[in-house]
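Open question from group meeting: does this chain pack into something compact, or does most of it stay loose? Before anyone orders reagents, we agreed to write out a predicted structure and look at it together. Recording both the input and the output here so the notebook holds the full record.
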Amino acid sequence: MIRVVTVIAILASAFVVAGGLFSTDNALAHEHRAVGNYEFVVGWLNEPALAYEPNGLSLRITLFANGVPAEESEEAEAEGQPVEGLEETLEAEIIAGGGAQTRALTLEPAFNDPGHYESVIIPTVPGDYTFRVFGDLEGQEIDESFVSGPETFSVIEDVGELQFPEELPSNAELQTEVDALGNGDSSSASSSDDTARILGIIGIIVGVIGLGAGGLAVASRRS
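Structure tokens returned:
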């Protein structure tokens, strides 16, 4: 029988590939907030924001010497100065739901985009999330929390609600199936049956990856 460790490695690799396919780097909904003379723009790296898909914090900080403009416009944004080097002085964390679980995030400067910082994570639970940014901002101590919602940025959606006509098993369900096979579940008639079931699980994941690649190709042609 295929060892369960090998199968889990295959599954992990498949999801990494899927992440590369689904990540479009299109951050649509963000919260804009004035913090003194600095504008914070915070949201997800990718939207729609779905559970079990690579995503993360998108943080943009811009200094406006004469104060943050009350209304957004290309002219007003052009007056701002992107603030660089904040990965050294600011910290960030992500909070699930009402704060039951918190995880520190590592801020990384976005490539060729001054003032923009990113931190990649894979959210695994649908619902509301909070990004907290705190620390030293050019000599000013700040502590700001940004909560997902209708007026800010997207909540994490359950992928099952978007699947049609049949809902695919979740990652947790797939893991349970793999664990049962690895533990010699009595429901498995033979090692060949176990192998077939595991290959079937992998086939489902490969199918999902294929659908994601197809959708991305269509989106690219339309852009």
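Observations to bring back to the group:
The CA atoms of residues 90 and 137 lie 7 Å apart.
The first strand starts at residue 30 and ends at 35.
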